[in-house]
Protein 1
Amino acid sequence: MTDYEAVIGLETHIQLNTVTKVFCSCKADSWFDPPNSNICPVCCGLPGVLPVLNKAVVEKGVLLARAMNAEIRPLSFFDRKNYFYPDLPKGYQISQFDQSLARGGYLDLPIPAAASPDKQAYTRHVTIWKLHIEEDAGKTKVSNQRRLIDFNRCGVPLVEMVTGPDLRTADEAAQYLIRLRQLLRWLGISEADMEKAHLRCDANVSIRVRGETKLNPKTEIKNVNSIDAVREAIAREIERQIREVEAGRQIEAWTLEWDEDSGTLKKMRSKETEADYRYFREPDLLPIRLEEGWQRQILVDFPELPLERRARFVEQYNLPEYDADILTSERKLSDYYENTVKSYGGDPKKVSNWLMNDVLRMINDQGLNPQEMQLTPDALAEILKLVDAGTININTGKALLQKVQESGKKPGAIVAEEGLGLVSDDSTIRAVCQAVLAESPNEVTAYRAGKVTLIGWFVGGVMKKMRGKADASLARQILEELLNEKNG
Amino acid sequence: MEICDLNALDLARLVRSRQTSAVEVVKSCLERVAQVDGRPGSLEQKPLSDEDKKRVHAFITLAGENALRQAQRVDRMLAAGEDPGVLAGVPFTVKDIFCVQDTLTTAASKILANFTAPYTATPVQRMQDAGAILLGKVNLDEFTYGSSNESSAYQPSPRNPWNTDRVPGGSSGGSAASVAAGEAPLSLGTDTAGSIRQPAAFCGVVGVKPTYGRVSRYGLIAFASSLDCPGPVARDVKDAAAMLAVIAGSDERDSTAARLAVPDYLEGIEEGVKGLRIGLSPDYFRITYPDPASGELLSQPLPEEIARAVTEAAEKLSALGAEIVEGVPMPNTRFGIPAFFVISRVEAASNLHRYDGVKYGLRSEVPTADLKEMYKITRNQGFGLQPKLRILMGMFVSAAQYSEQYYRRALQVRTLIRQDFEAIFDPAGAYRLDALLTPTTPTTAFKMGALYGDSVLMQYADQLTVSANHAGVPGISLPAGLDDEGLPIGIQLLGADYAEKTLFRVARAYEMATQEADWRKQKPEVLRGRS
């Protein structure tokens, strides 16, 4: 059978998380609001009103452009994209066409072994073909054969970002979206929730015989609402195209719609010709002039990006890739980790273990924000140090996590207050050991008869009596001494 | 002379010093409207009576009661010792292309017949904030698309107060007619190719197209957004200057409105023209028009009376000490209309997309299950001929396969026209002009029906004004005599960006120098026979 490869490009629409819309002062986020409650004459396109640009949109766009290694144009323009649709109240969308905010760009996308066909991790270089600012349109809902229009979404700021045809597998497409979502949240410019349409993705898919360089007719997949669905839909479409070509049929440039429920693609329309949007410069807005001063101000706190930080964690802290990946999944978590490492001064891997096993569970179960936890990086570091010093045992340390989180007290203070410190005083432990043996004559006899595994049971008894504070190894040592002594 | 014949600054002075009341002023204007205006424009199809043909028909919506209430408020403020503003008690009319809260805004189109805006256009608001009183909304060409006012869906369309068989010009025809007929001393118009200056010239009043961005466009229903300029229509230069000072300035709701301080246009307005360099260009002394058969641009000299009005004005200014610079080249003037034809229609077609029957305005009552059908029927019923022609042309010349040939090329021509102006106003250039003196229009007011229907020739009525819109520079038209049929002739002064103050100074010097001219004593036909 012929060996095919898929050629995939993704067109994403990213809703920026600004407080107000792009060209008016209406609230941008309407997720919890009833239809047509965040609207005004400007976003509804009434006659005579004019758009006024929200600068925060440009600023967030610049952050994304920088993160995608794109060239930021010092002078860019808005253009009108003309088409009729009832949820587009002006009959045109204000967008950017030939001189958009940014030019070029790329993302070096790490593909993990698990998502690789031959189970070897690799990097895919994904180029960015288009990155521009535009306004969102409203939403149309058909109900009882009536079209209902919600204009709340009109004027919500979007960045449209389009990749080159650089992706080769459905898994790569999913990885791109995972990394993009991570990046958007990392930069704090979008909530990037696909289920809430903050992040929308259309996929262009074609296939060719491996080794060829030409591009064959592609299909466009729309209406995919999760990363898993994108992966699934592309995989289905690649299979379909291979079947078609194997059967000697041509691939036609269809637009396909993903049906989530049945997990199938449905043909929406044939795409004989490209629509003519009659782009021209938006005369109601001035060009965006990104003077050096403004650009500097936007980029002054530009953060280390997740993939860079991931590589640094592996390098600097000797973390396994797996740990580094989880610890850089989110910027606040990653800052938390690094602050703890600095405060602790010990083995970074140990911090990683505590964080990934226990603290992360707390964060996820209780929906905590790492930045705002009472269990601060300093507190976590202190707990680790208390364990290292033998002041408390590991179990006490782990119990302390929640106590600190709830009370906001320092770990050392809680240990002192509740007397959680390990008892390593020989005579105290010896007295309890004697009491335990005295209370369990049958077990003592059994032990002495050779059932030495009972030692654990005795240690447990001691720990129980001392409410876990005994130095367990010392208790064991004393118990063995007492049991063997009588025997001798 | 009646109160309503006084100019705005005099009225404001009288009202502020309580020698008359705002209510008296408004009553006088309303009386004049009742005498000369006839029935207002309406969508009813009613044949023109002989009576109708003698009236001005400037208004679509007369807001008499509301105007009286505003006047009472102004008078109360004055009585209480408060200052209602520099235009206290001065009535003004507004071209019905500006939105005014709780007032019908029709754009003279059936498609907006029932539209009431929930906001007031910035220049209207500024007039009201200065104490001026909105008398009503006046007629225009549908969506401002015309130069005669005849294309209004609201008939009868305005007629020229100097001769009611003639057009008042357009598209701000209702504005110019209402000011010329003494219905109001001021009117707010818009100028996209000459739509303030041409009707001002036809009606013998002063019309100003400010620098693009000098006056906010917020609340102005757009024709060609990159060319549209709101501006004053007045009976003399000082009134126009005072009104511009009120309406100009930056606006947080229009980012294309310039963030430049507004000068005091009246300060030094009578300082004269001594030492100013005023140019004359041969390119403004010929009429260009397309040959109907070949489409080639032909040209012929300007009518002699109009040319003479301009040269006489130059002589007067020269006598006052201005330096007249002849032979100033403006070689791209003749391409102004073809380029405008393309650019304005691309923008107009796009600006008209929003009138789809979905959200406001007319929606066809013809039942249809299909959305596209609803769009089509609504737009077909709602738009008159002129919007339809502009949509067709605009869609055509911006289509991907034609855009390069038409739209892109027109933009290049626009740049060349802009460069013509930059060269002559460059303070370090060869001409170093303070103003360019030209005729405003190629003809005086033409007869009703003479051009209507030929939308190409109609457009050429703007050939001497449109360049300023392409270039964004300011222009003012002022009366400079009457032709042998007794129709007003207008002359135009064009200046560099934001040089309105200089233009007012030159215009005022000319106005003062001709104060005693015989033609200034003539009155419009509709006012003759009054004391």
Protein 2
Amino acid sequence: MKRKLCAISCIFLLLSGCSEKPKVSTFHAEEDRQEIETLEKALTDNKKIVEAAGVFFDHQLVVSLQVKPLSKFKKEKITKSLEKEVKSLFPDHDVFVSSDLKITWELNKVIEKQSEGKELKKDLDEIQELAKEET
Amino acid sequence: MDAKTYQQTVDQIAPKRPVLKNCMTAFLTGGIICGIGQIVSFVYMYFFPFTERTASNPTVSTMVFFAMVLTGLGVYKKIGQFGGAGSAVPVTGFGNAVISAAIEHKTEGFILGVGGNMFKLAGSVIVYGVFSAFVVALIKTILVQMGVISW
């Protein structure tokens, strides 16, 4: 009985790891539903992504993504192609895309906090600075 | 008895090496060390302003430091006996090589003994490490130029 339960839970765990759609979380300071939906569609349509986050603030857009384990060899390429796609979708926005795990964590913290104004700008600037850090 | 028959006799008498078992223990030990390294890397990323790219430097230093402390306490010797290459190949093997040589030559004095022999084994790690890094970087540069992979 115990073995059966173990096997079934293992199968469930394995299958839940293979969920098709990526987990996407977004936040818009001006609550523009259309822009959020456009970004979410672009992110969920990408089959190489497992997790993504995006924050809009005053013509500034910060996006972070996590690629599937086997696509990690082409992480930079995927990031660049997504950056190109997002830039074409939002030509009037200053777009920043990163595939770093730390950036995803920080961006998710910003989305959870739902801060606005100067605080949000400060957080986003800090995230972009962090991504540029070389040492 | 010529060299060939001698070798055959030796092969018959000598106990067989448990190659599969050794591979398994090495895989397990190396995997656990790398798993600990991944946890250390996550700790640096979560609690400090390190990104995935920059967290590797402090992680390597921390793992070497852990290995040095464990070597001094005599624990790494036991891990090495169990895991073999699994404990020597990761960067922790470097810390072990430095400290074990230092302990071994302590009786010869701190300058000529510890100082002179500390990098006796680790020196070759540095030389071949730098050389292999150069070769790998060269191959990667060529592959990037050809457009097979990206940086």
